[in-house]
Amino acid sequence: MLAMNYRGPGRVRADQKPMPEILHPEDAIVKVTRSCICGSDLHLYNGNVPDTRVGTTFGHEFTGVVTEIGSEVKKLQVGDHALVPFNIACGKCIFCRQGLFGNCHESNPQATAVGGIFGYSHTAGGYDGGQAEYVRVPYADVGPTVIPPGMDLDDAVLLTDVVPTGYQAAEMGGIQIGDTVVVFGAGPIGIMAAKCSWLFGAGRVIVIDELDYRLEFAKNYAQCEVYNFRSMKDPVLFIKKITDYLGADVCIDAVGAEATGSAIQSITGRKLLLQAGSPTALSWAINSVKKGGVVSIVGVYGPTGNFIPIGNVLNKGITIRANQASVKRLLPKLIEHVQNGILEPKKLITHRIPLEEVADAYRIFSDKLDECIKPVLITSP
Ligand code: NAD
Ligand code: ZN
User: Fold this and answer.
1) What ipTM describes this predicted complex?
2) What is the SS3 assignment for 333?
3) More confident site: 46 or 62
4) What is the CATH number for 224?
C-alpha cells in the first residue's frame, strides 16, 4: 500500500509499505479516505519529538472505511465509515474512566505522560498513522465513531482533532460570561479555539499571529479581533493597553514549541524575547493574562520547556491548564455543533492534495505557502 514515510528531519515521501494487519482481537483495519496534516505533525517533521523513527508513517487525523475487524470487536462493523480520534484509548483504564482519553495508560504503558497517538513517534506508543491507504486501529470499539449520515467527510476528519482541541482550549480557559480571551496562534487550532470561545460566553476574542492571511481568515471565520505581533513593539504591553491595563481574563497558547522558534527568528533584532528556544507565545500568554486569570495550553511542547516566567505565574496567581484534547469525551456535543451549523470546520481546509504528493503537502503547510490553513491528503475518492 502507499503510505507517507518519514526519512528524517524535513524529509518525507510516499512509499510502498506492507499492509497493516490485525495484531490484537480488538483491532480493526481501516481504508483511509481523508487524512490531514496537523501542526503537531510539524513537530515530528522538524525532528523535535524524541524517538521519531525513520520509516514511521505519520497521521493522527483521519477517516476511513473499516475493511477488517478483530474477533473481539463488537460495535464497529466491516463497511462502517468512521472518524477516528487522534488519541488511542483503551476505554477501561483509570484515566479513560475519568474521561482523560488523551492520557490512556494501556495504549502507551511505557510513557509517564501522554497516551497512545496515531503516527506520533515511539514516545506516543510507536503506532503508524493514517497518512496511508490503510491503517491499523487498536481498541476499535472505543474511539472510532461512525460518521453520521449526511456529514461531509471534510467536517468529519476535522472532528478527529482540530475541533475538539480548539473546543478544549476554550473549555480549559474556564471562560466566564463577558471575558476577554486572547488566543496566540491563528493556525487551525487557534482559529477553532477563538470560534469556540464564544460558545463559552466570551465577550471579546482576540487572535494574535504574524501571518496576515491567517489573521484575515480568523477574523472572518471566528468573528474576532486580530493583530499581527510583528507590528507591535511589545505584544504584552499591547495586550495590556487594549484591556485597560488589566490583562486578558484568559490566554490560550495555540502555538507550541517549534512554531515559536520561527517567530523568534522572524523578529530577531528586537529585544522582545527571552532567549532563542524559549516558548515565546507561552511567555506572552503568562505575562499578558490578568492577575488570577487562566492560561490554557494546547500548543505542544517537548517534555521540558525552558525560560517560562514561572515567577509571574506565582505572583499573579495564574491558573495554568494544559492537555492533549480528549476527543472521545467531546465528540457527541461537537458532532451536534457541526450538524446544526454552529461550527463549520470544513471551511478551514484550503488544500486537497493526493497522498502521492505528501512531500509537497508538508512543505506547503510547514512553510505556510499558498495561504495554506489546513491541508488534507486524499487517499481514495
Ligand atoms: P500551525 O503551525 O498551523 O499554526 C501555528 C500558528 O502559530 C502559525 O500560524 C504561526 O504563525 C503562529 N505563531 C508562531 N509563533 C507565534 C507567537 N509567538 N505568537 C502567536 N502566534 C504564533 O499549527 P496548528 O495545527 O494550528 O497547531 C497549533 C499547535 O497546537 C501545535 O503546537 C500543535 O502541536 C498543537 N496541537 C495540540 C493538540 C492537543 O491536543 N493539545 C492537538 C492538535 C494540535
Ligand atoms: Zn492534529
Assistant:
1) 0.99
2) helix
3) 62
4) 3.40.50.720
